Amino acid sequence: MPTLRPEPLTAAAFAPFGDVLDTRGDPDRIINAGLCGRWHDRARLDFGPDGRAGISVFLADPRALPYAFDLVERHPDGSQAFLPMTPHPFLVIVAPDLAGTPGSPRAFLTDGTQGINLHRGTWHGVLTPLHAPGRFAVVDRIGPGANLHEHRFSEPFTVIA
Predict the structure, then answer these.
(1) In whole angstroms, how far apart are CA 27 and each of 60, 87, 105, 123?
(2) Domain count of the chain?
(3) Which structural domain range is residue 60 located in?
(4) The CATH number of the domain where 76 resides is what?
(5) What's the pTM?
(6) Most exposed among 25, 56, 127, 140, judged by the fewest C-beta atoms under 10 Å?
(7) Is 72 left (phi over 0), alpha (psi -120 to 50) or beta?
(8) For residue 92, what are the CA distances in angstroms to 9, 15, 69?
């Protein structure tokens, strides 16, 4: 069984798959009479020509490392952002697209202050919180049609600590 070690989630390492949503560095703007920093326009949201943005709340069961998986999915018609509603790290599994099928997966570990936005069509694992409650605000495409492709690897991968 192939193993993966999660990488720290950085904007540069994650760029092929999506955007890192965090508050590193100085804010782009100071608003609300100087009482609030705004890190402006941090994600490329993409809902296709016939979709719209929707905000949902997910509550996922926590997992633990080592974590075995064989399933990844993608959403061909829209991006998908995950914003944790608790201050806990979560695991992000992504894979490059190789002519319609996922390539070798990579695992990232958030630092407890980060969210992610997956670009349209990015292969990714299921929502994988490492602590309870696994509550997330999710911004994704609402619209007609099937916006889900799933792929099962012939052999499971295991993410180790």
Answers:
(1) 31, 20, 32, 31
(2) 1
(3) 3-159
(4) 2.60.120.480
(5) 0.94
(6) 25
(7) beta
(8) 9, 13, 12
